[in-house]
Design a protein that fits this description.
Layout: E1 5-10, H1 19-30, E2 33-44, H2 51-57, H3 67-78, E3 83-90, E4 96-103
Parallel strand pairs: 1-2
Antiparallel strand pairs: 2-4, 3-4
Helix pairs in contact: 1-3
């Protein structure tokens, strides 16, 4: 078993998971956080600049999520834990959305 930790981060993982699996994984990841601990998840957005190239030439399709969709997944996971959505943000180029949750 894992001890309580202060930061759980996932990059390049949720892009491959369905909404149902993502919500369950978020809940599990949140269960490891100390009070005041943070969870940060990144996910490619539907409008990312490399999507056409990735899908056409690399046959690489992902599960794209808007910031609103990430926020919805965060709310689903947060209902079973004592935490709040700190913020949902997008990188400067609009390629990746980030969900940040904080355990109270």
């Amino acid at each position: 078993s894992l001890e309580r930790i202060d930061l759980v981060y996932a990059a390049g993982l949720f892009d491959y998971l369905s909404d149902d699996v993502s919500a369950l994984l978020l809940e599990r990841m949140l269960s490891f956080l100390n009070p005041g601990g943070r969870l940060l998840v990144g996910n490619f957005t539907p409008g990312n600049w490399g999507r056409s190239y990735m899908e056409t030439f690399m046959d690489w399709s992902l599960t794209y999520r808007t910031p609103g969709k990430l926020q919805t997944l965060g709310r689903i996971a947060a209902t079973r834990h004592d935490l709040a959505i700190e913020r949902v943000s997008v990188d400067d180029l609009g390629n990746v959305a980030y969900l940040e949750l904080v355990r109270s």
